[in-house]
């Protein structure tokens, strides 16, 4: 993607990059596709600013986001402003203030750049691109399912990208099971660590009477159908069964809408879902290491139930080749034609390169500018090499 | 545009704003329209980062841009990084480095947000949106004309916006005329100030033997045809005549391509065009005070001739009404339908609001969510109020 990485590195801080042709356009096309899908399902675009007062930007956010936030002083007020590392807290702010009186469920979408103080795992990028949706004011399995379904629609960029898979998690589940036994602090810690590491031997060592259930849950991780088959047979405490039933209902709802979507379940996963209160999911795409999107259920500002998703269109760029379908054919228009005369070609989808001087050899010029055609006697002629 | 300005002010620093529905989408549509027009004429998108090292961001820029740049320290290198107040210096950097070997003329486009330390005239906005083009590596009247013509195409957003007018200037012209006389420093200063203020009496007082010519030039300001008629008759020094002839040639070229475009000429204007070396222009739109775009000819990095233009799509938002053509019809899909069943409606351009719970009264729900239609027995029924 970078023509000359050394030159790029010499010019820009680590984690920042210039997107050149055709990548800048490809990125724009991918984002536009996502935004259009969001819009088609009633998610209305909002666009918060790049900077806002630190205390409002970080109001409901964990310490992670604060550490990742560049700050500058507002010379007008002498308050500190933060450069957003994440758009989602801004959407929560808008939903709870400016759009507090809009009918619920409130469907909002957003897309835009964010800046991180240091790179995240899987990527050194410090400027990232987010595109996402939030469904605010409703807590139902169908609402969770809608977020997943719309995600699948937004990621199906004209069959240009590989299919996605979505990994479903219920982060409270492991803890809700463990809390039914009176394990001491140390044993709870060791057991949670064993679950986190998917270490079956350690789970059996520290799991006590729950060892069997937890081992089955570990082993159930994988394709949703098989996972559900294994999890159905478990004898769980009521609270835990409720969480699991919710997960099953969401899977069923998603499959009803989109039977082909690849779903996996990771029933004991909990790490990294600190502020979430229900179903969570990671989005993967073959060819990309790490998540290309993530989301889940949480409580928004004012305690409103919400489910949301953030995609990372910038991570998809390496999957789109130079000669892919976003590229159009280029026509060299020799000097002397007017814009009016070639408007039809523009409407037909050609890119028009207007000649700016009387060329001695227009054909050579057309080749030099990588055109596929040249306009001669008001007709398109292919430019052979 | 702001539902509750007080609440907005309480939440965000002055000059920053949340764009809410439908404005965020309207802005996106306008930018997309512009970018598509740029692309249709071979201007390829580049996307530089929001932040880069201060010394590279401000390398060829005047002091104005430095004063408007927020800075943060890069914790990796301890160098200062600037948050761009303007994209054009970044495009010049890219053209002179990463794209130095791409064929000329190089046609580049860009679109994205910029952040200013304090608001500019005509607007308190500190986050602005730029969309523009640069035509690099050629110095010809046809190149100047192309920038103007493509501007007109980019501003003709589906007949949704009022027509633009473009004011043409040749900032070197006044000075090139005055320098032919040996006015002392004081008189030169007084005369330039008189021209700047369009003060005919003062021009006649300080203009000496040039008073007649300069007065005619002042009076010629206005519609291009009339201005050219008046300016043609002047007896100018060779250098000045050359500048004027260039202006005339550009006007002729623009009119050949687009006879309907409204052009004005301001032959003595020079203020604010400090680094420009040839034809400059301001873009106006009725209903908007101040420029909605500006550009001109200059020397890019490495001394390459270049002509560029920057539009401000964010300034156009107040001209687009809520009920304008970007809005689509909304259909409420009662709970129970699958995405597959309603895919045809999506393809027909409807926005689909999926019911998330079994409604007792789906029609009331459809109304509450501002839908125009409801799907009943697989058919669309209008939702009467």
From TrEMBL, chains A, B:
Domain of life where this protein originates: Bacteria
Annotated Class II Histidinyl-tRNA synthetase (HisRS)-like catalytic core domain residues: 15-314
Transmembrane stretches, start-end: none
One GO biological process term: L-histidine biosynthetic process
InterPro entries (alphabetical): aa-tRNA-synth_II/BPL/LPL (IPR045864), HisRS-like_core (IPR041715), HisRS/HisZ (IPR004516), HisZ (IPR004517)
A GO term for molecular function: glycosyltransferase activity
The entry's keywords: Amino-acid biosynthesis, Cytoplasm, Glycosyltransferase, Histidine biosynthesis, Transferase
Pathway entry: Amino-acid biosynthesis; L-histidine biosynthesis; L-histidine from 5-phospho-alpha-D-ribose 1-diphosphate: step 1/9
Quaternary structure, from the entry: Heteromultimer composed of HisG and HisZ subunits.
Stated role: Required for the first step of histidine biosynthesis. May allow the feedback regulation of ATP phosphoribosyltransferase activity by histidine.
Family indicated by similarity: Belongs to the class-II aminoacyl-tRNA synthetase family. HisZ subfamily.
HAMAP family (alphabetical): HisZ
Other notes: This function is generally fulfilled by the C-terminal part of HisG, which is missing in some bacteria such as this one.
Protein name stated in the entry: ATP phosphoribosyltransferase regulatory subunit
Source organism: Commensalibacter communis
């Amino acid at each position: 993607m970078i023509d000359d990485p050394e030159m790029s590195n010499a010019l820009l801080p680590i984690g920042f990059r210039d997107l050149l042709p055709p990548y800048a356009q490809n990125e724009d096309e991918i984002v536009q596709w996502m935004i259009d899908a969001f819009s088609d399902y009633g998610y209305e675009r909002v666009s918060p600013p790049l900077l806002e007062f630190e205390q409002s930007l970080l109001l409901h956010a964990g310490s992670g986001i604060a550490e990742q936030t560049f700050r500058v002083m507002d010379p007008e007020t002498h308050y500190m402003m933060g450069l957003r590392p994440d758009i989602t807290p801004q959407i929560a702010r808008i939903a709870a203030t400016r759009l507090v009186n809009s009918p619920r469920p409130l469907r909002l979408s957003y897309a835009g750049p964010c800046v991180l103080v240091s790179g995240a795992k899987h990527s050194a990028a410090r400027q990232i691109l987010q595109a996402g949706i939030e469904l605010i004011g409703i807590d139902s399995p169908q609402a969770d399912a809608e977020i997943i379904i719309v995600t699948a629609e937004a990621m199906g960029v004209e069959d240009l990208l590989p299919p996605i898979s979505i990994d479903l998690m219920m982060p409270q589940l492991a803890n809700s099971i463990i809390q039914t036994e009176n394990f001491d602090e140390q044993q709870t810690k060791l057991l949670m660590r064993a679950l986190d590491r998917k270490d079956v031997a350690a789970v059996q060592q520290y799991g006590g009477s729950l060892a069997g259930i937890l081992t089955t849950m570990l082993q159930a991780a994988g394709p949703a159908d098989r996972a559900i088959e294994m999890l159905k047979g478990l004898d769980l405490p009521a609270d835990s069964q409720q969480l699991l039933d919710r997960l099953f209902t969401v899977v069923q709802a998603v499959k009803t809408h989109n039977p082909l979507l690849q779903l996996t379940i990771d029933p004991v996963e909990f790490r990294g879902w600190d502020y979430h209160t229900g179903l969570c999911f990671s989005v993967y795409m073959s060819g990309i290491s790490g998540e290309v999107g993530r989301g889940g259920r949480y409580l928004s500002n004012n305690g409103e139930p919400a489910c949301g998703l953030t995609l990372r269109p910038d991570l998809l760029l390496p999957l789109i080749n130079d000669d892919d379908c976003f590229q159009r054919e280029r026509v060299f228009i020799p000097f002397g034609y007017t814009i009016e005369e070639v408007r039809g070609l523009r409407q037909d989808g050609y890119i028009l390169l207007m000649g700016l001087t009387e060329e001695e050899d227009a054909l050579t010029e057309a080749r030099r500018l990588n055109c596929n055609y040249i306009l001669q006697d008001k007709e398109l002629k292919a430019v052979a090499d």
